[in-house]
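Progress report, Aim 2. The chain analyzed during this reporting quarter is listed below.
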Amino acid sequence: MKEKRLIDALRNLDKMASFLELPKNVRETAAYIYRKTEKKGLLKGRSIEGISASIIYASCKICNVPRSLYEISQLYKIGETEIGRYYKILNRSIQFKLCPPSPHKFIGRFCDELNLDNKVLFTTSKILKYAELNGLTVGRNPVSFAAAAIYLASIFCGKCKTQKEVANVAGITDLGLRNIYKKLINC
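Predicted structure tokens for the chain:
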């Protein structure tokens, strides 16, 4: 019974990882975390989908493969809050050793999805470096900063995208993008 549940869970994790086009090391990390979670008894009384989503999220963070909570919540059809709650439970008992992700990790993928060229990508990178040097990114959502920098760079480069377009690709709200954009402009 226990082995069948493990096999099913690992298949589910692998299936979700392939939907997100995650590399093999992320899948292996997810399997390792799942086994560790099961050994510590963290699965009892908890949603398997919620735990699986948080394991995928943690594996991405550990392996430095940027995926936002929004992307994972869309895939699993679970709220970001629930995934975040399970992630905190896992982190408390397993204690992941993580560095916060850099906004730079997201800009390539977002620019591709928005069909923006390398000029915009390069300008976005410069904007983010400037923001980091001035301490604007500390303690803030890296996805929001990446999106706001892309929006600003697209304006500078004459490849204007709307706030809504950029926010949708990043999985954030227009308001969130606008708030960070104002901070970047005022810096």
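The first helix runs from residue 2 to 19. The radius of gyration is 18 Å. These observations will guide the mutagenesis work planned for the next reporting period.
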